[in-house]
Design brief:
By secondary structure, the chain is an alpha+beta fold. It has 11 helices and 13 strands. The strands form 3 sheets. The chain has a 6-stranded mixed beta sheet with strand order 5-4-6-3-1-13, sandwiched between helices. It has a 4-stranded antiparallel beta sheet with strand order 10-11-9-12. Helix 6 crosses helix 8 and helix 10 packs across helix 11. The longest helix has 25 residues. The radius of gyration is 21 Å and the shape is globular. The termini are close together.
Length: 388
């Protein structure tokens, strides 16, 4: 048992009076390309980070007891048979929602003691909430012998966030946390959950993918996700298709014209252009990786950022500054990743240029009077797993 595992076991034991039955981990993620496409049945390409949420867990009867080492406050105690959606509970709503979703699906979860700790930065657009959900689901799946596979756990975790917490997210974050593998990016078709592990060994190509956490979150993001989802659904309705996934890229221009003729709000036109374009960009990046031309993916990342900035309008001045400063300093490409309005950007750089590009981004933030961002390499890592 590693020192970290021993420490988590000791804190669980001190908190609940007996040892946990095991320890599990689930990672955060960055999304290489394909943003706001997952709730449109589209394509995404995330990779798991080495940063994880870890959970020490033991079964109990009747009650769910939750504690996080990362959040001030005592143990949150909830009756398992009294779990009700949209009742708050703060951070505890994410693991509690998984218990609720499992029970709603007919699984006999009697209760649990859970001690959580996480190294996934919160508010950084790196899916700290999905990591909490997936690690809880995986632990309960193992302890209660539910027999669910990784994709089924991801869908349960998404339902927890949608129906219990009340966030209308797609399934990408949970699938990335549950299903990614070390050294790969996950090419995911969110319509049927078909997936392919795409080798993504940047070091072998002399490259590095940097994550720049702006450490800002703008209130503008509140409700903006749901508004964009509704706009995408309106666009599909006006075009007479099930989802925007059904619109081929080759027909995009004609479809945008039809939307304008139908009197669609200009925001709907922009959202459709972004989603269909980003599905195409995922396909472009896949083809480049398959051909071994990883460097050529850089401009595709930057094009994705411009679409997120101008068509979806979910970027912010700090994210734009990362992209501008990184590219000006010689990066191959950069874009915001995640839901936007703050959070993180990714930067594809030559390994030899990583320090120079990082320095330029930090200097740009200082010159603009912004706080210092966090910068670290995104190393494609393993998905959810049992540790002990």
């Amino acid at each position: 048992m590693t020192e970290d595992h021993a420490e988590l076991t000791a804190s669980f034991t001190a908190l609940y009076g007996s040892a946990p039955e095991g320890i599990w981990a689930a990672p955060g993620r960055v999304n290489l390309i394909g943003e706001y496409t997952d709730f449109n049945d589209g394509f995404v390409m995330p990779l798991a980070l080495p940063h994880t949420a870890r959970a020490a867990v033991a079964r109990r009867t009747g009650e769910l007891r939750l504690h996080s080492t990362d959040v001030p406050g005592g143990v949150v105690r909830l009756r398992v048979d009294g779990l009700t959606p949209h009742e708050g509970h703060g951070w505890a709503a994410y693991p509690a929602g998984v218990v609720w979703a499992l029970r709603e699906a007919g699984h006999k979860i009697t209760g649990a003691d859970i001690q959580l700790t996480s190294t996934v930065p919160t508010g950084a657009g790196l899916s700290s909430s999905a990591a909490l959900e997936v690690v809880t689901g995986l632990a309960l799946n193992d302890l209660f012998g539910l027999g669910l596979d990784a994709a089924e756990l991801a869908v349960i975790a998404q339902r927890a966030e949608n129906a219990f917490v009340g966030v209308p997210c797609g399934v990408m974050d949970q699938m990335a946390s549950a299903c990614c593998t070390e050294g790969h990016a996950l090419h995911l078709d969110t319509r049927d959950l078909g997936r392919r592990q795409v080798p993504f060994d940047l070091a072998a190509h002399g490259l590095r993918l940097l994550v720049v956490d702006t450490r800002v979150k703008h209130a503008l993001g509140d409700g903006a996700y749901a508004e964009r989802r509704a706009g995408c659904e309106e666009g599909a309705r006006l075009l007479g298709i099930g989802t925007l996934r059904d619109l081929p890229y080759e027909e995009l221009d004609a479809a945008l014209g039809r939307l304008a003729e139908a009197g669609a709000d200009e925001s709907v036109v922009r959202y459709v252009r972004h989603v269909v374009g980003d599905n195409q960009r995922v396909e472009q990046v896949i083809a480049l990786l398959d051909a071994g031309d990883v460097r050529a993916a850089g401009p595709v990342l930057t094009a994705g950022h411009l679409s997120l900035r101008d068509d979806l309008r979910v970027s912010c001045v700090e994210l734009d500054l990362v992209v501008e400063a990184a590219n000006a300093a010689g990066a191959l490409g950069a874009r915001m990743t995640g839901g936007g309005f703050g959070g993180s950007a990714i930067v594809l750089v030559e390994e030899a240029q990583a320090d120079t590009v990082t320095k330029s981004v930090l200097e740009a933030f200082t010159s603009a009077g912004y706080g210092t961002p966090g910068v670290f390499p995104a190393v494609p890592s393993a998905g959810a797993r049992r540790l002990v």
